[in-house]
């Protein structure tokens, strides 16, 4: 299965005696994503700087989109994304808050899923140490929704997606990433260079 994943960060952190910028965190998240069992990172867009969305004053975001080939189910892949977020210091206390990393499952092989069911991470998965099931928020309930419900409203997701795969088709609207990008309004984006990891 082919999955498209957005990566974003606007909160630097101090980790293992080293300061990590939002650019560093997006790159590190991509490297961690490439190490998820039964998953291989195929390609990634460039890095983009965008204005923050939501209330309050926040730093600009660094955004990118990656394509991965995976044999994990959509639920297990989503669980791995949340585990990577937690390993990189993300907490889910408030909506729209600044965050060291934000990983969203945008599309999973064109599937359409609208689920209110529980989200759980299997304890017996062979995750690498930094993507540990023991460190995941196992008790949280997460609903898997595909494609991501706000994907077609966010230029900071659509621009890197269109760069990576301009002919990607939204499973519901049947519009390509480029067509959706032309329809959406959003703040200015600045391309910073490639996403290397």
What's the pLDDT, averaged over the residues? 84
Radius of gyration: 16 Å
- What's the helical proportion of residues? 10-25%
Q: What general form does the structure show?
A: globular
Report on the architecture of this protein.
The protein is an alpha+beta fold and 197 residues long. It is 22% helix and 26% strand. The chain contains four helices and ten strands. The chain has helices at residues 22-33, 74-87, 155-164, 177-183; strands spanning 2-9, 13-15, 18-20, 39-44, 46-50, 61-70, 102-108, 113-114, 145-146, 189-194. The strands form three sheets. Strands 1, 4, 5, 6, 7 and 10 form a six-stranded antiparallel sheet that branches. It has a two-stranded antiparallel ribbon with strand order 2-3. A two-stranded antiparallel ribbon has the order 8-9. A hairpin with a 2-residue loop joins strand 2 (13-15) and strand 3. Helix 3 (155-164) packs antiparallel against helix 4 (177-183). The two termini are 22 Å apart. Mean pLDDT is 84; it is low at 116-124 and 132-141.
